[in-house]
Amino acid sequence: MSGTVVQGAERRQAGAVAGSSRELDWILGGGTLAFVLLLGFVSSSSMELTQGLKWLLGGLLLIGSIVATLLVAWHLWNRPTTPTARELSLRFEAVRSMSGAQFEVFTADLFRAMGDQAVVLGGAGDQGVDVIVNRRGERVAVQCKNHRRPVGNRPVQEVYAGAQHHRCVEACVVAPAGYTRGAIALARSTGVSLYDADTVRQWIRKVDKLEKERASESEISDQNTPITKEIAEARKRAVWHPHPDDPPKS
CATH class for domain 8-12+81-203? Predict the structure, then answer.
């Protein structure tokens, strides 16, 4: 989170609901392009109307099947598998039903899962800052907006001023529904970072990756664990008390 980072909101029209990833955009865009090409082929051909409709229907079924298969594969590929990431993903699926306070807690939990320290402020007197994140000694002011529509300039203004009040080196807004053009323009001029639903999903995938790395490191550590005192004592007893079936020492 450095500089003026406008994530998925920068790639969308103002008023659009944020949340689709780049891969998903490619899948849907490819399906749309295939349909347009099919429609152009049928309309420019000299085939009869009945035959043209058969081509169009068959092509639509084929394109729909391919797009549906790719969507299922994309969903399975991006589904988190570690416990913390799965919990965060399930909570985010219900983000529309979260209150403002619940979304602030969720955002703080997400930052903690990524390895940062996070404190929820919220309430009166927070000066426009809902969560303060401590990332390797640097304080980041975060305002959380769980609105149904893209947010405007006001959250950007508030978190920018609140960051100065709380002596933070960075400021950002987390709003799953995205941002208006005015908010994006103001964020660029003030250096406030904007994060939407697409970014939250990326962070959850990051948590999933971090948990897998920690689990792998733990397995390696267990394999390299030195012999414990109990094991050493057991081996000593085995030396002093050999099994009766062992051959006598020469």
Answer: alpha beta
Q: Are 187 and 159 in contact (CB under 8 A)?
A: no
Distances (CA, A) of 120 to 145, 167, 192: 14, 16, 19
Please give the C-alpha separations between residue 98 and each of 103, 152, 222, in angstroms, as whole numbers: 6, 20, 40
Q: Where are the domains of the chain?
A: 8-12+81-203, 22-78
pLDDT digits (tens, 9 = 90+) for 130-180: 999 998 889 999 999 999 999 999 999 999 999 999 999 999 999 999 999
Q: Of 19, 27, 26, 21, whose CA–CA distance to 65 is shortest?
A: 27
Instruction: Tell me the backbone φ, ψ of residue 139, rounded to 5 degrees.
Output: -90, 130
pLDDT tens for 49-67 read: 788 788 888 888 888 888 8
